[in-house]
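Review form for a predicted model. The reviewer records the input and the model, then writes brief findings.
Reviewer: anonymous (R2)
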Amino acid sequence: MTKYEVTDALEGIELTEEGKQEMRDIVFIHDKERGEIIDDQVRHFIIQILKRGIDDMLTTETKDPSTGGTIRIQREIKRYAMSVVEIVRMAKRYNDIDNVTKNQVYHHLPKLIEAGFVVKYGTVVTGKRTTDYYRRTAKGFVLATSQSTMNEALMKRKAESHVEKFSIFDITLSEAQKKELVGLLFEAAKIEKKGVSEIAKLVKGDVADKEILSMYEDLVMLYALGDENWLQIHRRIREILLPNK
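Model under review:
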C-alpha cells in the first residue's frame, strides 16, 4: 500500500502529515534505549502484527473512453495501517503471537510512536464514531545496538514458531525432535546475537536498501561460522531434518 492507495475500508480517511510519508524499507536501530522499547513483549507483538498487515480491497474507477461508462475494478490488497480493534483481532490469528487487549495496545502505542517505530496514519470519521489508524515507519527494523535487546523469551518463541513451520515439508518429526530443535535453534540464535552486536559496530547510519540488509545478515552469519559450537549445533539440526541426505 503506497501513500496514494486508500483502501476501501479507509475511504474518507484524513491522513496525518506522518501518514502521508511512505514507509522506509529497512531501518537499523543503533540506539540502545530505542532498541529496548521493542524488547517488551506486547510492543514486539504490536510491531509484528502491523508488519503482517490485514486483508482489504482496493476499488478503482475509470471512464470507458468508448462508452463513457464507469469501469470499476476491485483487487485484494494488504493494508498495513490498522486500528486498535484490528490489531487486537489480528493477534488472535497467529500461533506465535499472544492475544493482546485493547488496553494494552492503547498503553503501548504512545511509546512506539515516541520512539519512532509507529505513526498515527490517519483518522476515519463515520457519523459520531472516530477511528484512528496506525502504521509502522519502516517495513523492517534491524536491532543493531551494541547489545542486542531481543530477550530470551521472545527468542524461544521465535524458535518454536520456526519449528512448527517445518510441517510444510515432507519431514516427520517426533515431539522429542521438535523439542530438541527448539533448543538448538535457541542456542544458535544466542550465538548469532553476539554477531549482531559485533557487526553493528561496523554499520554507519540508517539503511533503506534490501541488498545492504542481505549483506549485513551475511556478515552476521560469517561471524557465527567462526564459532565451533554454532557449527556443531547446525550439524545436529541437519541430522534431525535431513537424516538420509
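Findings: The two ends are 42 Å apart (CA to CA).
Further findings: Residues 149-241 form one domain.
Recommendation: see findings above.
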